[in-house]
Amino acid sequence: MPSRAIESFEGDASNARERFQFQDQDRSLSRCGAVVLLLRYLYAALPQLSERWLALQRINEAESKYKLCRVNKLYISGKKIPCLSTHDGRTIRYPDPLVKVNDTVKVDLATGTIIEIFKFETGQLCTPTKGKNAGRVGEMVGIEKHPGSFDIVSLKDATGVTFSTRLENIFVIGSGTKAAVSMPKGKGIKLNIIQERDAREAKAAQK
């Protein structure tokens, strides 16, 4: 990270340290430690629309206490304990029986327990995490089953534009039109080339 970016974080490091009671008895909070602390508690990484990397989205204190996790697998352990594994490698024992594969669970980071379930079904707010539509946000309107091939999910964004992606790319982020996480600028709506041109011209005219 460039030094200027690191220096810009330093102004908020003391506030973040006091807010979350960061303990460091051996040495003072270094520049690198300030950046890691702020990224951990004040920002979330979200797919960036039309780009090939993640964008940092600022979050509030309440959002820093939970995380949305996609359920990748349900299984019974060797000791006959029901478990689920999530997209980030997390294992949760004794999950709610209502949880199914592809659902999204809201996990309390302090206790590691599930506090809310977002079902993988039509009407839910979703975002693709991979593919050319990564970063777009829309309501799930349909699921096409293709035995022996890839299942396809259709989404409709807030402007009424419909797009599709593979089922394994879908991440449920909320119910209806309400997202459980803060959304980046643009709210996941992809502009066409004419709309992008008009937006650039309007921005240039304001300068």
Please tell me how large the radius of gyration is: 20 Å
Shape by Cα distribution = globular
Distance between the termini: 29 Å
**Main beta-sheet annotation:** 6 strands, antiparallel
The count of strands amounts to 13
Outline the low-pLDDT stretches. Answer: 1-14, 16-40
Oligomer: single chain
State the strand order across the main sheet. 11-10-9-8-12-13
CATH class category label of the largest domain: Mainly Beta
Describe the structure in your own words:
- The structure is a single chain.
- The protein is an alpha+beta fold.
- The protein has 3 domains: 3-47; 64-118, Ribosomal protein S4, central domain (OB fold (Dihydrolipoamide Acetyltransferase, E2P), Beta Barrel); 124-179, SH3 type barrels.
- 21% of the residues lie in helices and 33% in strands.
- The chain contains 3 helices and 13 strands, in the order ααβββββββββββββα.
- The chain has helices spanning 3-19, 31-42, 193-206, and strands at 43-47, 54-58, 66-76, 82-86, 91-93, 104-108, 114-118, 124-128, 138-144, 152-156, 162-166, 170-175, 178-179.
- Strands 11-10-9-8-12-13 form a 6-stranded antiparallel sheet, with no helix packed on it.
- The longest helix has 17 residues, at 3-19.
- The protein is globular, with a radius of gyration of 20 Å.
Would you spell out the secondary-structure blueprint of this structure?
Layout: H1 3-19, H2 31-42, E1 43-47, E2 54-58, E3 66-76, E4 82-86, E5 91-93, E6 104-108, E7 114-118, E8 124-128, E9 138-144, E10 152-156, E11 162-166, E12 170-175, E13 178-179, H3 193-206
